[in-house]
Every structure is written in C-alpha cells, then in structure tokens.
Amino acid sequence: MPTGQDLDDRHVIEDKPIEQENYSRPSSSGNDDIHQQEDPEMNNGAAQDKEAQTDARSTLTTESAIPPPPDGGLHAWLKVFGGFMIYINIWGFTLTYGAFQSYYKTTLLSTSTPSAISWIGTVQAWLLIVIGVLSGPLFDLGYFRSMLLVGNFLVVLGIMMLSLSTTYWQVFLSQGVCMGLGAGLLYIPSLAMVGVWFSKKRALAMGIVMSGIAVGGVIYITMFDKLTDKAGFPWAIRAIGFVALAAALLSIPALLSGSAWLKHKRKRRALFDKSALHDRLFLVFTCCSFSTFLGYIVPYFYIPTYAIEKLGSSESTALNMLVLSIAGSFFGRLVSGVAAHWMGAIVTWGVCAFASGVLALCWISIEKESTFIAFSILWGFFSAALVTVPSAAFANITPDLSRLGTRLGMSWSVSSIASLIGAPIAGALLKRTDRQMDFIGVQVWSGVCLMIGTGWLVVLWAMTVRKQKKGWRV
Fold first, then answer.
1. What does the pLDDT look like over 406-415, one tens digit per residue?
2. Model confidence over 209-239: pLDDT tens digits?
3. Strand partners, 295
4. Do 444 and 352 share a structural domain?
5. What residues does 432 pair with on adjacent strands?
6. Fewest CB atoms less than 10 Å from the CB: which of 16, 240, 303, 376?
7. Could you tell me which of 310, 350, 320 has the C-alpha nearest to residue 440?
8. Nearest to residue 135, comparing CAs of 53, 190, 89?
9. C-alpha dihedral, 29 to 33 to 34 to 38, nearest 10°
10. SS3 for the chain, per residue?
11. What is the domain extent for residue 324?
12. For residues 433 and 440, what is the distance between their CA atoms, to the nearest angstrom?
C-alpha cells in the first residue's frame, strides 16, 4: 500500500504571489509568520520602488508555504498521534473482519454463503485503497480538512449503522461501502501529513502510525469477543463505535494543529502516466503485488472460522487466534523494515512472500489448536511485509521519482482488485461435507497465489539486478 513517503509532494508549482498574509507552517518551535518587507530607502523614485517591491513579492510563491520538514516539535508529533488514531479505525477494522466473517456465518447472516459474506470485508478494503489513491490529488488541492471531517464522519456513521443492521444488504452498505469510503478519504492524507512534517525521522514516525493497525485490531476484536455474548451484537458494535468516535475526535485537532498552510493549493498530481505501460519493471511489479494480494488477506478472514469449524475451538479462543495473528503483524512490520534496509526491499518482499506461501500450504495439515496458534502468529509476522515493503521496493525501480506517486497509485489501483476478489474466491472454494467444512480450497488458493507472487518477485529481482548493476541487495 502507498505510504505518505510516496505521496509527500510538498513542492508547489503555481507561481502566484502571496499578498500580505500571515499563515502557519511547519516549525520545530510552532508557527512562524512571513511578512513582506518594505524597502526603507526611497532614493530612486516611487515608480522604481514600486517595481522593486513587485519583483520581491514574485519570489514569495506558495511553494514557500511548505518549508523543509522540522523533524520534531509539538505540532510534528501531534501529526504522528493523529495518524495513529486514524489507523486504529481504518485498518484496525479492516484486518479484524475475520471476527465478523465467523459471526455472520454462524449467526447474523447464516443464510448467506461464505463467499457473499467475504465481499463485505473485501469491498471495504478495496474502497480504502482506491479512494485512498484518489484522495492524494485532493490533498494537493487543499481539501485535507474536508476529507478529515467527512472521512471520520463516514467511518463512525458506518459503525453505528452496522449496529442497526439485520440483513445482508444493510451490513454491506454500512460496513462495506460507508466505512470503506470514509477510510479511503483518511488513508493517504493522514500519512502524507506525517511525511510533510518529518524527513530524517520519517521512518520512525511512519512506524508509530502504522502500529495503530495492530493496536486497533486487538482492541476491536477483544471488545467484539467480550461484549457480543454479554450485551448482544447491536450494543457491542455501538460500544466499538464510541471508541472509534473518541479516536476520531482526538485525531482531528492533532492533524490540523499548526497547519493553516493547508489552505494553499498545490499542483495536482497526475493520476495516469502513459510511459509506465512501457516500463517492464513497473509491469512486473504490478504482477507481483496483484498475485500476493490475491492470497494475503484470505487467512485473516478465515482463521476464526477454521478454528471453530475444523478444530472445535470456542468462539473466544478463535478470536484470540486472530488477535495473536494481528499482534504478530505488528512485530513483522518492524522487523521487515529493518531487513529491507540491510537486504533490500525486493529481497525482503520475496523472502516473506515465500515464507507466507509455505505457511499457507502447511495450514492444510494443521489439526491441533496449539499448532494453529503458532501458525496464526507466524502468519501475521511474515505476511506483514507483503503490504509494507512493496512501497519501498517500488521506489527502487522507479527511474523518475517525480512520478513516484502517480505510478504507485496506478499499480495499487490494479492490485486493489486482487484484494477485492481474493477472499470471495476462497469463500467459493469452501465446501461443507457431511460432518464439517472442508478448507482445502481456501488453503491451496492462498498458498498457490503467494507462490506465484514469489515467482514474479524472483523475476523482478533478476531484472532489477541486471538493470541497476548494484549487487543483489535491491
């Protein structure tokens, strides 16, 4: 998935003079004012003096509204806190969908097929990515405040409407569409804000923001598990909604503090670069991400269902397995980032894709609870790199970094289709025998897709090494 580093487009090309106006900008000590200075010497006449002032103003364009990032200070770290709160809501809910998949199949939507139920979660994830790509240019045009307010409103509204839902289409519209649209409006801009305020410490800042994914997943799954039995599904979802509302309300002032410069429009980034279609590395990269995305999210959706149906685990134990998987992904993101620094992003991506594919195929033979717990933790650890490392890998193969955001958006738009269809296809392969459900189709689908992705990554690695001639660490 694209990160704020890829969409950190702080340079403004519009050559419009800023009239006498004060505005806030990133600063390690707070807000600074830019004032136009008048020339005190009036020796050459009024006409020459006026011309000199006009020339001086012409150099003060909106580009100066976004100076180099301060890499610290109250406002900068408030952006990290705000992004952390945003990610608790948008990705925390997306990765916890396995808990809802299990509950819907056994209780709320028991008449629907596993494939149909999967569409709810995959549509939410797909909208998050696609709308996220489109929200990048809106951020450049100065609509961050609007997206922040509307996005948070839609996410909380979707959760509250889910608490009132009783039919498939009500759940689909509230959890899949409404929450997906809101999350998409928040996804890229919240990371881009962190990128604007950090440079040398950007990796640390991004890592803290990304950790909100695991924190949100653990919080929401635990609440869902404990409250559904005691208070019922509607009130369990409302309680989650109140937590999401608190996170949203905390994120808004944190992300807007010291950011009056956001009202200045910047040059909108192009959404399509035709030259990318003739770049073999770009095409192979897209095949890599598309293949891995087909299999990546499947276990997250079916870990609780497998534990209940195949291993006879209680619902609480099954959900705890998903919690352990998401917790494992937290450490996986940290370790894969360090590994990518030393081994190269493409190599790290390939190793983790291969390990994930092997784990998915080994899933076929798991028949014990203890073994499945180990699988869940390892899956979360290794699969985390499949969504965090690709952005760094893409930067390594992009010849013109000024087109990085556009090209990555193009590639992720294609790969998001894999996120949309991967789990529903796996659900269609899920069969019920006389006594229990047969998960062999789900397991083989996930494993084979990841192995195909590994094959594409070997091709990408070989092509990159041959082209760049910098050694195997790429």
1. 787 788 888 8
2. 878 888 888 899 889 988 998 899 999 999 9
3. none
4. yes
5. 437
6. 16
7. 310
8. 190
9. -130
10. CCCCCCCCCCCCCCCCECCCCCCCCCCCCCCCCCCCCCCCCCCCCHHHHHHHHHHHHHCCEHHHHCCCCCCCCHHHHHHHHHHHHHHHHHHHHHHCHHHHHHHHHHHHCCCCCHHHHHHHHHHHHHHHHHHHHHHHHHHHCCCHHHHHHHHHHHHHHHHHHHCCCCCHHHHHHHHHHHHHHHHHHHHHHHHHHHHHHCCCCHHHHHHHHHHHHHHHHHHHHHHHHHHHHHHCHHHHHHHHHHHHHHHHHHHHHHHHCCCHHHHCCCCCCCCCCHHHHHCHHHHHHHHHHHHHHHHHCHHHHHHHHHHHHCCCCCHHHHHHHHHHHHHHHHHHHHHHHHHHHHHCHHHHHHHHHHHHHHHHHHHHHCCCHHHHHHHHHHHHHHHCHHHHHHHHHHHHHCCCHHHHHHHHHHHHHHHHHHHHHHHHHHHHCCEECCCCEECHHHHHHHHHHHHHHHHHHHHHHHHHHHHHCCCCCC
11. 274-473
12. 12
For residues 76 and 163, state if they share a domain. Answer: yes
Task: Give the number of residues written for the chain.
Answer: 474
Domain final position from 269, 291, 310: 269
Q: Could you read off the pLDDT of 48-61 as tens digits, one per residue? A: 444 443 333 333 33
Pairing of strands 437-438, 431-432: antiparallel
Half-sphere exposure of 361 (CA within 13 A, CB side): 11
pTM for the model stands at 0.75
C-alpha gyration radius of the chain:
24
Strand pairing partners for 431? 438
Nearest to 145 by CA among 277, 8, 302, 263: 263
- Alpha-carbon distance of 457 to 470, in angstroms, equals 18
Residue 46 amino acid letter: A
Is residue 251 domain-shared with residue 324, that is, in the same domain? no
Q: How far is residue 209's CA from residue 128's CA, in Å, rounded to a whole number? A: 17
User: Are 290 and 249 within one domain?
Assistant: no
Are the C-beta atoms of residues 31 and 79 closer than 8 Å to each other? no
Rounded CA separation 104/30 (Å): 49
> CA 411 to CA 395: how far, in whole Å?
12
Cα separation, 239 vs 127, whole angstroms: 24
| Spatial distance between the Cα atoms of 347 and 344, rounded to a whole number of angstroms | 5
